[in-house]
Structures are given as C-alpha cells and as structure tokens.
C-alpha cells in the first residue's frame, strides 16, 4: 500500500508542457557559414596568388630592363643612358602602382566583400514567429489537457480505492491496484508521445520560416556581391573583426518587410518531467 501511495505522489503529478528558450543552431539550414568561410579563404588565397603572379611579372620585366641596361651601360651615350634609366624608373613606378591597385587597402583583393548576420535575431522578429508561437501554445495546451484528464481519472480512482480499501476482497484490491498502475503507465506513455509530437510540430512550423529567412539572406548577399556571409549567432567562427564585416541584418529585415520592434523570443516545446 505504501508503494502505491508513493507512486501517486511522485509519479502522477499533472506536469506542464512548458515552452523554453530556443536557439537556432542549424547554420547549414540558414546558410553554410563555416563552409562559406573556408571557401572564401580558399578563393582569396587563389586570387592573391594570381595577383601576385601578375605583379611579379611586372617587376620581372623591370629587372630584365635593368640588367640589360647595366650590361650595355658602358657602350651607351649619356643621352641614351638617361632615356633608358627614365624608362626603367617609369616601369618600376608603374609596377608599384599596379601592385597597390591589387593589394593596397583600397585594392581589388580587399574589395572582396564579407558580410555578417545574426540569423537568430532576424528570425525572432519575423511576423511568422508570433503566429508559430501562438500555434505551438495552443497545441501544447491541448496535449496538457489530455494529460490532466488522465491524472484526474487516476486521482478519482485512487481516492475511491483508498476509501474502500478496508472492505475490499483481495481479488478486488488486486484488480484496482492494477487499474491504478495501468493509469500510471498510460500517463507516462502519453508524456513521451506528447513530447515527440510537440517537437515534430515545432520543427514543421519552423522549417518554412528558416527557409524564408535563408532566401532573403541569399537575395541580399547576391545583390550585394558578397563573397561570404557569416552567422554570428552560431559561434561557428573562432575570431573575426566585426568592424570589417558589413551587417546584413537591416537589409534582410527590409527584404522581409520587418520594421524595428521588440523581438519575440522563439520558444521550443518541452514535455514535463515525471515527478
């Protein structure tokens, strides 16, 4: 009898299908941040090598002119020497300027654009998130009510069992105990299934929202000719200089028709723990 009472106290509590804060961590679903980062670095490395080869060719030409000049200098007139020297200096200056156009602070290489975006923050303010939250809360409430019905049924039968315990035959007592234990198992089974159903529903509702955000990010990044865009909400980058990256969130929000407003915190479902 004591065993049954303990089960009633510690197992068959109503519980709550509560919402918890949710962090979007599937950066591949929004955009491939780490892959884009590695690809961007590889692309820049190859581009830098190509540019360096082009610069080296310019300076090699200058060196060839200089070596030829030094070999012939003794036989040249003063006027010719001056002309050749001026030509070499002009070629060298042109090579230096060319190098600057490629590798300087405003050069072609550093004109490659990188962007950053906090996808979690963007998705949290999308109007679809409010609708999703309402849907999840309603669905969770239905599951909660079903679980409460099982608990109420158990409590009623337990009270009846406890009231009539002294007058029950052994056969009836065993039958009633089995009914109560079956209800305990039913409640626990329902809890597990409810958790799975709630998570499945959440994922189904969240997927199109993520897809819409991804489409907006792709559109803004493509239109802006960005080489790569990094998701700062996932922590996938060990280090970056934020000041050197353009924040695309305002443009993406504009693309999604979002005006600045207090963010709605996305929530993920969580089934109650048995007590």
Q: How are the secondary structure elements laid out?
A:
Blueprint: H1 2-10, E1 18-21, H2 27-30, H3 33-72, H4 78-103, E2 113-117, H5 119-124, H6 127-164, H7 170-223, E3 226-231, E4 246-247, H8 249-255, E5 267-270
Parallel strand pairs: 2-3, 2-4
Antiparallel strand pairs: 1-5
Helix pairs in contact: 3-4, 6-7, 7-8
Provide a descriptive summary of the structure in words.
This protein is mostly helical. The protein has helices at 2-10, 27-30, 33-72, 78-103, 119-124, 127-164, 170-223, 249-255, and strands at residues 18-21, 113-117, 226-231, 246-247, 267-270. It has a 3-stranded parallel beta sheet with strand order 3-2-4. A two-stranded antiparallel ribbon has the order 1-5. Residues 1-33, 237-241 and 271-275 have low confidence and may be disordered.
- What profile does the largest beta sheet have? 3 strands, parallel
* Large-scale geometry: rod-shaped
Compute the separation of the termini in Å: 19 Å
Uncertain runs: 1-33, 237-241, 271-275
Main attributes of the structure:
275 residues, mainly alpha, 2 domains, 8 helices, 5 strands, disordered N terminus
In short:
This protein is mainly α. It has 8 helices and 5 strands.
């Amino acid at each position: 009898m004591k065993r049954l009472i303990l089960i009633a106290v510690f197992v068959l509590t109503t519980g709550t299908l509560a919402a918890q804060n949710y962090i979007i961590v599937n950066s591949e679903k929004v955009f491939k941040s780490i892959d884009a980062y590695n690809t961007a670095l590889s692309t820049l490395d190859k581009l830098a090598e190509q540019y360096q080869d082009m610069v080296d060719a310019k300076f090699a030409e200058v060196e060839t002119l200089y070596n030829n000049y030094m070999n012939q200098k003794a036989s040249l007139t003063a006027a010719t020497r001056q002309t050749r020297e001026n030509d070499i200096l002009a070629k060298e200056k042109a090579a230096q300027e060319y190098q600057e156009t490629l590798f300087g602070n405003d050069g072609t290489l550093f004109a490659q654009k990188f962007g950053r975006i906090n996808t979690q923050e963007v998705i949290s303010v999308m109007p679809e998130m409010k609708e999703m939250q309402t849907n999840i809360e309603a669905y969770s409430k239905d599951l909660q009510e079903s679980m409460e019905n099982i608990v109420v049924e158990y409590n009623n039968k337990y009270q009846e069992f406890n009231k009539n315990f002294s007058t029950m035959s052994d056969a009836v007592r065993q039958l009633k105990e089995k009914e109560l234990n079956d209800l305990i198992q039913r409640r626990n089974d329902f809890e597990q299934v409810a958790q799975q159903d709630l998570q499945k529903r959440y994922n189904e509702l969240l997927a199109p929202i993520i897809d819409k955000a991804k489409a907006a990010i792709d559109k803004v990044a493509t239109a802006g000719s960005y080489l790569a865009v990094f998701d700062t909400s996932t922590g996938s980058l060990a280090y970056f200089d934020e000041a050197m990256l353009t924040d695309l969130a305002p443009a993406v929000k504009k693309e999604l028709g979002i005006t600045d407003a207090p963010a709605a915190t996305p929530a993920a479902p969580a089934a109650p723990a048995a007590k």
